[in-house]
Amino acid sequence: MARNRQRRIVPPEPYPWRRVIGGVTLVLVCWGIGLYREYQPEADTYVETAQTWYVRLTWNVTYVDTFRDGIVHRRAKGVNGQVPVPPVYINQGDTLLLTVHNELDVPTSIHSHGLRHDGATYMDGAAMVTQCGIPPGESFTYEIYGAQAGSYWLHGHRKDDVADGLRAPFIILDKYSPYEYDEDVLIYLEDWYPTEVPKKMAEILAPNSVGPPAPTFATGLVNGYSGNDSRPIQFVPGKRYRIRVISMSSTMYWRFTTPGHKLEIIEADGVTSEPCLVDGFTLAPAQRYSAIVTAHESGDFNFIYNCTMYADFIPRIPGLNPRIYTGLIEYQRDAPIKQMEVVGDDQLVWADDLSMHALHGEPALPMERQVVLETRAFVSTERINYRKLGTLPYTEPLVPSLFTAMSMGEQAMDPRVYGPQAQAYVVPLNQSVEILLKNPQGQPHSQHQHGGWFQIIERGPVDRSELEEPPAQANFSLANVPFIPVRRYSGIPMSRDTVDVPPFSYVKLRFRGDNPGVHLHHCHLNPTHSGAGLSITFVVAPDVLQKTLRIPQALYEMCARQGIKTEGNAVGNWGLDMTGLPPVPVELPNSSPRVPLPTDAPPSPINPPQPIN
What we know:
By secondary structure, the chain is mostly beta strands.
């Protein structure tokens, strides 16, 4: 175990000036139980200490004109006048005091993706779930305790914030790492679209549309700018490098490989894993991996690393989908690049949830209750395209669900008080829940759960009678749907907070209701899926919340200034009186047809058969 080891943190390029918060100037003022230090992005190194710090950071959220992909000038949402937003680093055990000033003309909020927020669910940052949005011209300070070492990210969680640029890596450095390495390298990946999200959402949710709008092709960003401009990663022979790869994409998927170097995965979504040696990994939107790469003993050659952005649910067009970006692993500036044998993806070893094991995990939880969720698309009688996980598409309640849980007394245990469009499931304290998540569609879904992790238990095919015809722009049809075997975990299952659910398949996830709070569960394909309703809500132990949680007064006042109620059911009434609830979408008959699958359908290369454990 590496104790108090001093490591160099390698900043993501092309920001050579950006460094982490170590080497700071100390302000010798005691506050609470810790000390206080300013955020110093220009510091060169991070030195671990045994002390606990408060790290103060201010974000002025503004509109920014940007040309970050080198192709299109457009308006984005940035911080302190810039996009991309610089990464944030703290030590495990530190508390980040993130003051957000909203200088937009719409409300915003910030979600710390992947953190549990034990005892402080109101700091989760999901607008109209755990708080009202921060209104224009106002501020709020998030207190984010870094209990969990790992790779996370901060992003807007009010409608279109995240896809328009309000996102940044958030790294909590291990106080005591179980793995030895010399340097910490960050690579973060994004997709970037030529139009702002509100315009795209207007197309998606436009009445009288005949179907989803035509696909728009994104460009790929590596460490904040065009993937074509990536700067080298410096390697020294014999050293070990922890490479953190974070997908902050809104829609597109990524594959990451380092030909000539093996990747030894040690973390997925903030959960430390047993070492798992692979050639590469696929990242669905919002997923993260850490892998240790050991440099060669000789520095005679430089090597290439690959970042490929793709989607199987839009047309394949060379140069547009997929987009292939490469960077240099540089041992010596003038060394030649090692020419590697070209190997097909099907010949590589890829990271697989069911083949990984949590290092300090627990055995598979018992199934005390099963919640069945199914991804569906449908058209309403108003000819609006919606998506749903439960019986209805999710829409925001008029009262944040956490405030309903805190104010409804014993009725808070009744899921109906959260409103039909919140799609709430109430989980008693410490109940073990299995989610059977079925995806009968021809599009993948990247499912994220707030408030903790879930164990990945099983994958398999959706019943053929339930399948839907893929969209016209997909690269396959029901005639060539792949063979998908049933596979289960072995040993200690891997846990994570975001899971990819491929087309025509299901996944079984288990979690324990040991974190009282209101936790959103949603698809992280923004805005096309989550914005169209693909979310539900888990309300964990509301009876315990009422006895143990105290929501800061500032959050009540922020709601009051926007005219948003902070007590009562989903519309601010008492009991089950839903007077004032917006109309519930009514599904147009046969708008989401299930098409029988030919029994002789051959396997497809989009998802090659995998061996059964």
